[in-house]
Amino acid sequence: MAIKVAMDFKLRNLSNDWPSKRTPPTKTARSGVIKCFVNSSNVNTDLSLAEAPWKVADARLVLEDGSVWKAKSFGASGTQVGEVVFNTSMTGYQEILTDPSYAGQFVLLTNPQIGNTGVTFDDEEAKECFLAGLLIRNLSISTSNWRSSDSLVDYLAKKNIMGIYDVDTRALTRKVRDNGSLTGILTTEKSKTDEELLEMARSWHIAGVDMIHGVSCKAPYEWKDETDSEWEFNCKGIDEKGFHVVAYDFGIKLNILKRLASHGCKITVVPSTWPASETLMMKPDGVFFSNGPGDPSAVPDTVEIVKEILGKVPVFGICMGHQLIGRALGGKCFKMKYGHHGGNQPVRNLRINRVEISSQNHNFAIDPASLPEGVEVTHINLNDGTCAGMAFPALNVMSLQYHPEASPGPHDSDYAFGEFMQMMAKIKLSA
């Protein structure tokens, strides 16, 4: 059998297309024929069954609203459930991938091209990836970064994380923005029908699920590593006293520990279930409650631990830590429509009337009206007016609903670590 493909180029005078008031060129187009023959008489293969030389859609994302999104897979394969949230960061996809606060969530990146800087192990925020999956528009076919040690595709495969690309991320982001965060099922399994996947999606919700204990460390350990010298732009004038800080790991990011260590702190990291009595027996100068995933109302035992520590030593909490402090003070949390996820969230510091650009990742927020008298709202999110920070001077408590260490950036709120040092110093001097 032979296949013939022919393309004919007809002769035409280019002068016919030239403006009449100008001298036309003397060139004329040449005619020609391109022929292609494939002789398969000696090949026992049916060409009609040949596969396309490019990757075709082999994955589906089925959302609880019944919509089905076809895409191409990379990384791990299988079937995974999660809540779809979008992140508006322009850079730092590796830090996003390794942020434990994304446990149970499909992260939809609004930046269209992902993978072009590869993966650098020094930029990891945790040694494991806890997110449910990664949803992107364009997967870069090449990596250009002198620090890169692996490709994004190979990295996700090693971490057993599913990813899809060639999905309409603009339309998907609008859907989440308009309808709120949606539970979905991501699969590469052809045997599962859309109806089966839809039933699975509608039977799972992240609200009320304890996500903290699954990402926390299992035993206490000491942390010593600091951030590199280029980070030390905000430590001038801070009188470092070598404070001992007990850090509760609810899914703590490594750069938080590095920033505390850079301020001269001796850090003991403890699991989320570590008893308050054991912490107080260590006689720390302060206690830090970290970021973490999920619903703060799903971990009442952890709220009790926080409650027992408040007022005993200075306390600093961020993200989940902020929410748990609010709950321990008697405040209420509510689930946001689609949360705050990105490195470009505007926050106003009400104490000094300054706007900061912050890195945020949370789906729940504290209701300021439910907080007791004496609790001061120190920061608000300028996008929706939600509480982004609070302080309770009577109990030496401060907290933020975002990441002051902000890796990979911005660094507007890094001063918060210095404020924590000053609070511990004040208590230590008065003792």
UniProtKB/TrEMBL annotation:
CDD domains tied to this protein: GATase1_CPSase
A Pfam family this chain is assigned to: GATase
GO BP terms: 'de novo' pyrimidine nucleobase biosynthetic process; glutamine metabolic process; L-arginine biosynthetic process; pyrimidine nucleotide biosynthetic process
EC identifiers of the protein: 6.3.5.5
Keyword entries, A-Z: Amino-acid biosynthesis, Arginine biosynthesis, ATP-binding, Glutamine amidotransferase, Ligase, Nucleotide-binding, Pyrimidine biosynthesis
Domain Carbamoyl-phosphate synthase small subunit N-terminal positions: 57-187
Function statement: Small subunit of the arginine-specific carbamoyl phosphate synthase (CPSase). CPSase catalyzes the formation of carbamoyl phosphate from the ammonia moiety of glutamine, carbonate, and phosphate donated by ATP, the first step of the arginine biosynthetic pathway. The small subunit (glutamine amidotransferase) binds and cleaves glutamine to supply the large subunit with the substrate ammonia.
Designated name of the protein: Carbamoyl phosphate synthase small chain, chloroplastic
